């Protein structure tokens, strides 16, 4: 039982830290162009200068 007194606040703090990191990423535009990144994989680029 004594371990729970320590572990529950640590788990809540880590959850809050993860949630705040997620909201920071949303505000800074990390998730704006998900389709563009997926389409960029499929586009072939001609490498000029490569022998």
From TrEMBL:
<dbReference type="InterPro" id="IPR004714">
    <property type="entry name" value="Cyt_oxidase_maturation_cbb3"/>
</dbReference>
<protein>
    <submittedName>
        <fullName>Cbb3-type cytochrome oxidase assembly protein CcoS</fullName>
    </submittedName>
</protein>
<keyword id="KW-0812">Transmembrane</keyword>
<dbReference type="Pfam" id="PF03597">
    <property type="entry name" value="FixS"/>
</dbReference>
<keyword id="KW-0472">Membrane</keyword>
<feature type="transmembrane region" description="Helical">
    <location>
        <begin position="6"/>
        <end position="25"/>
    </location>
</feature>
<keyword id="KW-1133">Transmembrane helix</keyword>
